Amino acid sequence: MAKIIYAVAGEGFGHSSRSHLIGQRLIESGHDVVFAASNKSLVYLREYFGERVKEVFGLLFHYRDGRINPVTTVLKNILRYPRGFGINRRLYKDCFEKFKPDLIITDFEPFSAWWALRNRVPFFSIDHQHMLTHCRLEHPQGNRMARLNASVVTRCYYGWATSYIIINFFSAPAKVPSAVTAPPVLRPEVAALKAKAGKHIVIYVTHGMNEERIRQTLGSFAPQKFVIYGFNKNEQDGNITFRERSTEGFLRDVASSKGVVACAGFSLISECMHFGKKMLLLPLPGQYEQIINAHYVELLSLGLSRNELSEKSLGEFLLEIEKPMPDDIRILWPSNERFFEVLQNQLNKLPNPIIV
Known about the structure:
Blueprint: E1 3-8, H1 13-28, E2 32-37, H2 39-49, E3 53-55, E4 63-64, E5 67-68, H3 70-99, E6 103-107, H4 110-118, E7 123-127, H5 131-134, H6 144-157, E8 163-167, E9 179-182, H7 188-191, E10 200-204, H8 211-219, E11 225-229, E12 235-237, E13 240-243, H9 247-255, E14 259-262, H10 266-275, E15 278-281, H11 288-299, E16 303-305, H12 311-321, H13 336-347
Parallel strand pairs: 1-2, 1-6, 2-3, 6-7, 7-8, 8-9, 10-11, 10-14, 11-13, 14-15, 15-16
Antiparallel strand pairs: 4-5, 12-13
Helix pairs in contact: 1-2
């Protein structure tokens, strides 16, 4: 049995849901696992793991017009840090030092990684973000500032991990020997659903999408049916159905759809791939991780990448849907089994190997 601390970033559902799945597997394998989480992940993980989950101070990002505002982000976190310093000091003293972990795993959570470095404890990084810094990518033209910001933020979070397991939907050469790519993992509720060939297109409303403009655009494509999430209301308007927020309902609608229109978040891309649904991706401006995701979705013929939802882009997407899903060797299709094989290979390299 190994003692493992699993630290999780507080922003973004993908971090917490992925850590839930992997952490549960570690516990079922007989290991003693303590989670360190902040913000949304703290609330989410405590529902499942209770007192195993401790609070770590987590950084918050401030967005303006869909972009991270670096100045406001820094200022807000500086103001929050006196309280955060106290939280982390108690966490290190009352939990980490007494627990004496054999391994720390961090899903884009920096403070636990820094503690691991200072105390010479092996630590694994398991996330999608380090794809930007540790893989050789084909970069689309433009977006230089967004690319620079994303690279700087990712590098500043932490470095010198024993192993970087980069969860990704496409293979890319690693820049360093400690990095390896692994396919996306799926939550049990996603894996349990069966894909169906439906007639509707799901639209997940992203930042800055105007409701009236969406109605006009979609109305011109009648009788094609659309199901919209994001405005949090139930309403029927011709060929458009608005749905209230519901994780289960959203997943069912995606699984039974013709295709999906959304921003380029990694988790939803993985789920669409699992269900065999093509995507029209509208990456949030200034968020380079999403720009890269959307670029590779189009490059691999998994869907299209466009700047906005318009009659032109939607018309192109309706034609794209009719094409078969690709069979490109560069695609890493979601596979929990394959992910755990990659994880085990990396754990085997530790001085004291850990079995999952």
